[in-house]
Specification:
123 residues; alpha+beta; Double Stranded RNA Binding Domain; 4-stranded mixed β-sheet; 2 helices; 51% helix
């Protein structure tokens, strides 16, 4: 996975960068991430001043989260929570689809059996 962290009016520190790296790598078991792009911004003229945008490039649809807060760490936490929620939604959707596909053939067999039974009783 390629990880890019951009700092815009935010000082780069080892603790901040390693926290972001660890949180993104922790998502890997749940989602294949080919590339991650993180942008940290501080806009003093706006409130809340700190903005974090995380873009995960994955097979299938990309996952993007953007959050603002009054501290950079809080903005990062919010963005990571949003990413985790979106990844969880993807897994839930996939599970529903698989369950639906498994139930449809069983329902079709049941319908065919009922149809045969109805035909044999009517003749």
């Amino acid at each position: 996975m390629k990880l890019t962290v951009q700092h815009h009016h935010v000082r780069s520190t080892d603790t901040l960068d390693s926290m972001i790296e660890n949180r993104i790598f922790a998502l890997q078991p749940r989602l294949q991430i080919d590339e991650a792009s993180v942008r940290l911004e501080c806009r003093h003229e706006e409130s809340p001043a700190f903005r974090v945008r995380i873009h995960l490039i994955t097979p299938g649809p990309d996952v993007i989260a953007e959050c603002r807060d009054h501290t950079i760490r809080a903005a990062i936490d919010k963005a990571m929570e949003e990413l985790e929620a979106r990844i969880g939604d993807r897994h839930a959707k996939r599970r529903r689809r698989v369950r639906s596909n498994l139930q449809e053939p069983a329902q079709m067999r049941l319908d065919q059996t009922r149809c045969r039974a109805t035909r044999s009783h009517s003749t």
